[in-house]
Structure formats: structure tokens, C-alpha cells
Amino acid sequence: MKKLIIFGIGEQAEMAYYYFQNDSDYKICAFTVDKEFVDQKTLFNLPIVAFDLIEKDYTKEEYDFFIAIGYNKINKLRTEKYLACKNKGYTIASYISSRASILTKDIGENCFILEDNTLQPYVHVGNNVTLWSGNHIGHHSIIQDNCFITSQVVISGGCEIGESTFIGVNATLRDHIKIGTSNVIGAGALILSDTEDNKVYMEKGTEVSRVPSTRLRGI
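Below the sequence we write its predicted C-alpha cells.
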């Protein structure tokens, strides 16, 4: 089996550990983070190694890397660590669930594509992209590098998603539109036209009723 090091020790890293361990050809051998964040010795009985020392015992010839960081700072932190691992010369792995429907081979490195995603023909997925469970990515769509797409998102055919964009749960994008770079598209948003760079699109949350739950008789 191929050997893998996971960058990260938070929830995202725990999820990466589960999926790679149970649904890939990789054997996970260690975790790593920057030395100031090494506050424990092991995770899942595997060593946690300071990143600046990683080459000492885990060479690029023998080990691959996966960067398991979420959408912190609109994906900038994950992008920084992805580039740092590449600069050390390591091969960067991707995880693609065996329970996803993948009809394209055009998928980059350090991608994390979970179960029940549908990627239709001619879709392009760049490097360092997370697709959480249950999304629809329509034909001929392009997802640029460093994006994070949560769950139950519908991206219709022919869309282009700009670099470092975050898309929240249940968002819907109509066909043949272009989303700018570093957009934040909130949960439940409906996007019907092109967007500019560095914009935020948020739906209003459900308002609380003035009637307390103790007065409801039909539930």
C-alpha cells in the first residue's frame, strides 16, 4: 500500500483519516502540523510530527501528503499548507469516494470528494478542492483551485467557480454563469447571474416566532 501523511489534527483531519483508511489504497502513517500546534504526541495511535522536521523520518520518495484543513480564512490556510508541502517535493494525494458518481477524470490533487457527489461529463475540478457529500456538479462546469463546496449544492451545467470560493449548503447556481474569485455564497442562496470577485451572498435566516413552543398544541 502507498504511505500517506495527513497535514492537520482537527476535525477535517479526522474525517480524512476515516475516509483514506476505509476507502483508499493508502496506509496512513503519521499526522503533521506546524510545531507550535503540536500539543499531543499521537492521534489514532499514530505519531504527530512537527512539519519542519517531517523530512527527517518521512521522505518524499516513500510518503505522499494530504492537507486536511477546512475553509479557514476563505480557504487561504489550506492553500498555504498545500503549497508548502509541494515546495518540499511531496506527491499530493486526492481522495475520491467509491460511493460518488464520477464521470470525469479531470480532477486535480489534494481534492477531497465525499460520498453521493455527482460529477457529470466534462467537469473540471482544480487542485485543493473539497466537495463535501451530496453535491451535483453539472456537465462542462469548471471548479477552479482551492474551493470548498459543502453539501447538497447544485451547480448547473457550464458554470465556472472562481478560485478560493466557498459555497454553503443547499445553494443553487443556474447554468452558464461565472462566480468570481474568493466569493462566499451562503446556505440556501440562489445565484442567477455572474458575480464579482470578493463578494458575499447570504440568504436571511428564518425568523424566530413570537409564539413560544409551549403554546403549540398541534405538535
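The mean pLDDT is 97.
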